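Retro notes
What went well: the complex prediction finally ran end to end.
Inputs used:
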Amino acid sequence: GAVVSQHPSWVICKSGTSVKIECRSLDFQATTMFWYRQFPKQSLMLMATSNEGSKATYEQGVEKDKFLINHASLTLSTLTVTSAHPEDSSFYICSARGNSDYEQYFGPGTRLTVT
Amino acid sequence: GENVEQHPSTLSVQEGDSAVIKCTYSDSASNYFPWYKQELGKRPQLIIDIRSNVGEKKDQRIAVTLNKTAKHFSLHITETQPEDSAVYFCAARGGSYIPTFGRGTSLIVHP
């Protein structure tokens, strides 16, 4: 099956700094990538959807200036959490979808802890 | 937009019993319904999916049924095993091509 990687798997940063998370589709071209945030014992909350070469579409309530998303190629999307605060601590998961309009594949997630 | 309700939030069964998780959706244009299994700290993994032109799909111990008229779909796991313990999410994808996830069901299978 299709493989999506995510890096780093976990990161600890100080309040006020920025953190970049990478999401890569390893064996297929991802025309669409999704970024989710998941709190403990809760569902996946969609943050934004990005298509290669165009600006990301953010969900209501998600600050686009705080969560910068770049989908520069068909295999790479990045999420940068700018000026991180402790409340940004969460599990961030990306997923990617290829030319098929159906299946989407999830990355392993990144555990972000802001101290 | 699409709204997906999932029940129950927690399901506890004995090994060997069957487990059923139900979801309802609101957008009649939804045409794709995947189910994901997520173990603690890991990524959600697609376990089965169904498209709107099919009423039922089965894969070994797992089956999914879809009732388009009633706008609900269900996941059935037979002969449950302890390794089936995880959180299961349903999702529905409609005209926006962006799936909406249910809140999840924590399945606990007791040996």
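What we learned: Chain A touches chain B at residues 32, 34, 41-44, 46, 49, 93, 101-109, 111 (CB under 8 Å).
What to try next: split runs per interface for comparison.
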